[in-house]
Amino acid sequence: MQYFYTVRTGDRLSKIAEQHNVLLANLIAANRIQNPDQLAAGEQLSIPASMHNYIVQSGDSVYQLAEKFGVSIATIAEENQLLSPYLLKVGQRLRIPPGVPYYTVQEGDTLEVIARRFNVRTKGITKISLIQELNQLATTAIKTGMRLKIPYAPIGESGFIAYTSRLEGGPDIWLYDVESGVNKRLTTDIGGSYSKPIWSMDSSKIAFVGKNQIIYIIYLESGLIGAIDQLAEGGDFTLNWSPDNETLAYTARGKIILYNTRTHESQQVNQPGASNVNWFPNGKELLFQAVDREGVHQLYRSSLTGTDREQITKNTEGPLHEVQLSKDGKYVLYTTPGVSISLIDVVEVASGKTFEVKGGPEAKNYFPTWASDSKQFAYSSTELKGQQYRSQIRTVRFDGKNDQIQALSNCYSTPVTWSPKHERIAYLSGCGEEYASEMWAVDIEKKFLVKLIDDNQIDALQWSPSAIADFTTAEFTSDVYEVNFQYPLGWRKVNEERYEGDDGFFQVSAISGSDNLEEVCQAEANQELLPYGSKPTILSSENPEVESCLILPSDDQPTDMKNQAAFIVKYPMPITIKDTTYNYFILWADKKHIKEISSTVMFLP
Questions:
Q1: What is the DSSP string of 324-384?
Q2: Residue 144 sits in which domain range?
Q3: Of residues 472, 399, 460, the one with CA closest to residue 427
């Protein structure tokens, strides 16, 4: 959900951006501003930023903080459960929203106008239905003065972001569907505080180090999870997939281990003290860190048998961290020397030439991650702003040139991950005392920010390397109703028309009706027994080539209906079932899954 700030007399866009911990370019993109120098008092701006985690200073009052951040006293009081007279203590931590969680409709506004202005769009298509659904609007009609919640729309690309979450116990591995915005839990109570999901290059498997330092592999197509080894506490937890997506490399018991996930056999490579193992793209060589004869940490390459060892670096300092080979195998990056001071170097593998990355203002540069083009990488750089730390999401060329800040996070540091075509970077924000509560993505070219996940507890994330099919779904095909669609994996067949799971259901049928789709949808939604409640919302398709509607229940829907919603779509040509002709297909499903399932409906040829 987006937050809105009302422009005050004397405000400048740059001042508003700095006040709310957001880059000016991101603020301009969020509001599609054509002329940054033209601001009108009373204008409402979407603020793509996290909550301020403010520490109360001597002399602070709720009134002063409300003035400083441009929000109401009531907003601060409600967010922090403060009671009148709102007394504060020095050192007290307050969560201050970047604005109010609604947009006030202005004269001349329509849902289409609002959705376009605030980027409620997926794959370039304006999604007014998302605004309707969030606000439970039965129609698209709105009035001046209405307060509307404005959502962030899903990006709409095929693929997933795997992340570690503590939301429901855990920590465990979850998947965020970039196309639909749906989250799905993959593991239950086997994660650890150090768990980082690592995708195979074909995006069919995820490896991670879980509870008790056990290495697990998730086979996404089958849903199976296998435990393959156990590492020493406090050891090297680097995991790296082979280019053919079959073999996982890691270090254990003083050796490099190559575990084949197809044959379930392992090979040991004798490289004493090795760590940070990476595969070269030829699949025949490994890169790793080990000490030289003087006890100094260096990077080496060798064959899979451990022979033909060749030193790459000429390091004279301490250990190297976050070692990562570029996708083409030409460059390797790492951070050094430690945590309080963390600098990034890039080494050309063939020549040993080193490029130093200047980095951020505090020399605290973390989580460097290569883009798939091997020409650039992203990283998080810590910055002290006032009395609080924040992190800059930066991109830079392999040679240290063209270092740019793409976005800001209110976390001290954050892992970063690239989309498959290196158009976007996802990162964490919304940090409180322990964990990040939000996941964001920034469009590198357009500078537009999208909040992907909110109200969570996230430690790590990684975008799937390739645009993949949804391995969390199964396929339903009916020759009777002449349809095919995807539904959540694990749901059980009740009969030919109905499937159920622990978290939802679907049922299919066909109906006859007039050629007027609106009449058919109204008739289904407003039945005498009110199966969708007294005020259901009807959303018409935003695709002009498809005649369909969604029916979403109102809050007073009878509980025995199990949150039933409906999707009605007109057949290209009427079908006949047992001598009866039908011109509409109808899908019933729970409200949580109706949009996800209906978006995959296809008629059989």
A1: EE-TTSSEEEEEEE-SSSEEEEEEETTT--EEEE---TTSBEEEEEE-TTSSEEEEEEEEE
A2: 112-153
A3: 460
Q: Locate 349 and state its tokens.
A: 């593998």
Which letter does DSSP use for residue 105 in this model? P
Nearest Cα to Cα of residue 564 among 603, 542, 540, 597: 597
- Residues 477 and 598 both lie in one domain: yes
pLDDT digits (tens, 9 = 90+) for 566-593: 999 999 999 999 999 999 999 999 999 9
488 and 589 inside one domain = yes
Separation CA 359–CA 392 (nearest Å): 10
Is 190 domain-assigned?
Answer: no
Is 21 contained in some domain? yes
- Read off the pTM: 0.81
Burial profile 223-249: b = 16 or more Cβ within 10 angstroms, e = fewer? eebeebbebeeeebbbbbbbbebbbbb
Residues paired with residue 198 on neighbouring β-strands, in sequence order = 207
* Residues of the chain scoring pLDDT < 70: 468-471
Domain count for the chain: 3
* Structure tokens belonging to residue 193: 């505080």
Domain final residue pick, 85, 111, 137: 111
pLDDT tens figures, 300-334: 999 999 888 999 999 998 899 999 999 999 999 99
Q: Are residues 92 and 127 in the same domain?
A: no
